[in-house]
Every structure is written in C-alpha cells, then in structure tokens.
Amino acid sequence: FLKGKTALITGSTSGIGLAYAKALASEGANIVINGFGDAAAIETERTALEALSGAKAIYAPHDLTRVEQIEAMMAEAARAFGGVDILINNAGMQFVSPIEDFPVAKWDLIIALNLNSAFHTTRLAVPYMKSRRWGRIIQTASAHSLTASPFKSAYVTAKHGLAGLTKTVALEVATFGITANCISPGYVWTPLVENQIPDTMKARNMTREQVMNDVLLAGQPTKQFVTVEQVAAMALYLCRDEAAGITGANMSIDGGWTAQ
Ligand code: NAD
Fold first, then answer.
1. What pLDDT is attached to residue 195?
2. Which of these is catalytic: 20, 155, 187, 237?
3. What GO molecular function annotation could you give as one example from this UniProt entry (predicted)?
4. What is the pTM of this model?
C-alpha cells in the first residue's frame, strides 16, 4: 500500500530503524536509509530492501548531529525521489551518568541527535508533504518521553522535547493530510540497549544480570523486551489511511511500563 511513496528513516542501519525500513519496503516504498556502520553490511541491507520492495533504496551516510549534513541528506532524497512522504526520526544515542559528572559534550551531542535533528528533518520535509496533501511524520520517542530514570538526563530531556515537537507539528499540519506521532517503546533488545549495560553496571555497581533484571526489565511488567518487529508494525499502521485520525499522539509499546 506504499507503492510510489518515499520513506526516509534516520538511524536505519541497525536496530529499530532497520526494522522500520524492512516493514515499509515490504509494502513497496522507496527507502532512504541513514546511519553509520560497515559499508559492505549497509550495501547488503540496501540491496535486500530493493529486493523486498521492488522499488529503490538509497543510503545517506550523513551525520545528523550537523545541520548542514541534514540539509544535504534531505536535498539528496529530493533529488532521488522528489521528496519524502514518510519521515521517521529514529536516530538516537544514550549516555548514562550522574548529572554532576555528565560530560558537556555528550549533552550537546545527544540533544543534537535525539532532538534537534528531528526539528531539521521535519522543517525540510513538511513543504513537500503539504504540496502532496499527504504525509506521515513518526518519531521513535521512548517511554522516557513520558517518564524519567536517573542518570539519563540528556536522553530524557531530548525525548520529552521530541514529544512536544510532535504535538506542535501535528497541530500545524493537521489540515494537510499529514499526521505526526510518537512511538514510545520501553526496552527493545537492540545494540543501543546492549551497549549501555557496562555503563549502568559502573554507575549502579551491579553485575550484568542485575542490570538486565533489576534495572532494564524492572519497570517492564511483561518482563519481556519489546521486539523491533513490534515497533515497526506500529509505524506501518500509522502510515495507513485508517490511521489518518491519529495525530499528535504518543503510542506506547512498553510492556506496561508507563501504566504504573
Ligand atoms: P541503535 O544503536 O541500534 O541504532 C541507532 C542508529 O542511529 C544506528 O543506525 C546508528 O548508526 C544511527 N546513528 C547514530 N549516530 C548517528 C548520527 N550522528 N547521525 C546519523 N545516524 C546516527 O539503536 P536503537 O535501539 O535501534 O534506537 C533507535 C531509536 O529508538 C533511538 O532514538 C532510541 O532512543 C529509541 N529507543 C530505543 C529503545 C531501545 O530499548 N532500544 C527504547 C526506546 C527508544
């Protein structure tokens, strides 16, 4: 149902972003993938997306902490496909530290990537969506867009900001057939989660097993990690015409975390 549409997904060389790319490609969309990683592995994913969609997939290697690179990426998507119909702001990183020790450069980087990049891609994508009178803006926010955890000040701040940006944009584009929504996962098993285990072990003086059971899944009543496929299925639903009435919403997929 996405034949002829173009989806740009930031941070889609791995984890949740790659799952979004596969889900949207399976419905026939052109795909722009973005993010870092091994060039050969990314090329393999890119060709697999084309096989899945029967449409085109291009790779944008741009660093989304830099405004001029975001502008270059959006220009490249416009050159290749005319513009972006579905924008998924998904690139994000985490850093775990007590606030008094939080490195200033890390704060700036996380706000730039997890929040500012979504402002820039959105402001650049909206004119085309308005001209087509159709569009979907989807953010991978987080349960941390609704609630906090200690030692994640930059991340929680950025994700709460993303939720506010989404609501604001939803109101601005509401009469143009464009929706803007957050998807807010709890803990999803991806490299981002795996990589924060050592820092959390240090910050809380815990073993790996204690971090997994007592920190990561402590607040998730299902005691299960969310899967990337579950998150991607929600994005696909939000792209459907049946979801045209869902805008400015924050869709939780968190195993009951924020119900508590
Ligand atoms: P991941 O680390 O697997 O993927 C992150 C992606 O962002 C990668 O493709 C990486 O190359 C890309 N990236 C990193 N820095 C970049 C930069 N400067 N410019 C462009 N791309 C960059 O992580 P993930 O778990 O798939 O997370 C994706 C999103 O989901 C993030 O926004 C994260 O905050 C959010 N999220 C994750 C979880 C979880 O439990 N994994 C939970 C809630 C929200």
1. 87
2. 155
3. 3-hydroxybutyrate dehydrogenase activity
4. 0.95
